[in-house]
Specification:
The protein starts with a strand and ends in a 5-residue tail after the last helix. 38% of the residues are buried. Helix 2 links the parallel strand 2 and strand 3. It is α/β, with parallel strands linked by helices. It contains 8 helices and 13 strands. Helix content is 28%, strand content 18%. The protein has one domain: Spore Coat Polysaccharide Biosynthesis Protein SpsA, Chain A (Alpha-Beta Complex), CATH 3.90.550.
Length: 285
């Protein structure tokens, strides 16, 4: 059984992450209706009733929250292997949307047991995120993106998540011991995943066309500049009633990682609900 899996863990008295997970799930159902979705939460009771029908599976973290007061939702990523209902999984960063037919992503499941997606910028260019990988580059840690990951229930995938368990839990000690230069000051999901991959001593696949769009790639970043250009606020983003997304003059396709939860508004949720409702309404003869 194949399906999409992502996190929906929220802080106390907050529902923003489950709302983003709901938006992602509906967009996946519209883009790839033949496959199911699973959201992983801290407690079933934390999911508002109005969102429950947007997922095929809602499962709880099997070992509870890694850090109850930590705001990074992906600090619990290491638990997904232990609670997924699927044999073949497509992990997607919660702060993402599926825009159009994405079924072809599953073609890359035959390449390896764990496959990492490649990020392109919103213009469709293969722009390396130098700013994001600054710590990795300085500390000579292999750098790759982590917002789209395929994994199955193989020994290799099990070994990866088994290694992630203690390292994610002890990320502060890991950063202290491994990062000799330019230390990270807070949990960094991509950095930690890069460290886990290195620690397993396994090789992993990064196929060119197993990709997604990362709105956060700063293609204007220059490490020599003391003051960086605040470029993202200058972007013009249009989302149509049919969930076609255009950024400046570039129409988006596939998976779009938008990074900031503020992108998910009541208006976007309403558009997704309307489109999903149409797919469930029988056509009258």
């Amino acid at each position: 059984m194949m399906g999409y899996i992502f996190l929906g863990v929220d802080d106390h008295d907050s529902t923003k992450n489950i709302e983003c997970a709901y938006a992602l799930s509906l967009s996946l159902k519209l883009a790839d209706p033949g496959r199911e979705t699973c959201v992983v939460v801290d407690k079933f009771s934390h999911v508002p009733l109005k969102y429950t029908n947007g997922f095929d599976y809602i499962v709880e973290l099997p070992f509870g929250r890694t850090e109850i007061n930590h705001s990074d939702i992906h600090i619990d990523f290491w638990q997904l292997y232990h609670c997924t209902p699927f044999d073949s999984n497509m992990f997607i960063n919660t702060y993402s949307l599926a825009i159009d037919n994405i079924a072809s992503l599953w073609d890359f499941a035959n390449i390896d047991d764990v496959v990492f997606g490649s990020a392109i910028d919103f213009r469709g260019n293969n722009t390396r995120d130098t700013e994001k990988f600054l710590v990795q580059d300085i500390n000579k840690i292999p750098a790759f993106n982590t917002d789209l990951i395929y994994f199955n229930k193989s020994d290799k995938a099990q070994d990866f998540f088994k290694m992630a368990d203690p390292l994610f839990k002890g990320w502060r000690d890991v950063f202290r011991e491994i990062l000799t230069d330019n230390k990270a000051t807070n949990f960094d999901f991509t950095l930690m995943t890069n460290i886990v991959a290195r620690a397993t001593s396994d090789s992993y696949a990064f196929p060119k066309y197993f990709d997604y769009t990362d709105l956060g790639i700063n293609f204007l970043y220059n490490p020599q500049d003391e003051i960086q250009i605040d470029w993202i606020d200058s972007l013009n983003i249009w989302i149509t009633a049919n969930i076609d997304i255009k950024i400046n003059n570039h129409r988006q396709t596939g998976i779009l990682h938008y990074d900031s939860p503020s992108v998910v508004t009541n208006d976007l949720i309403g558009k997704l609900n309307d489109n999903y409702r149409k797919t469930k309404t029988p056509i009258k003869n």
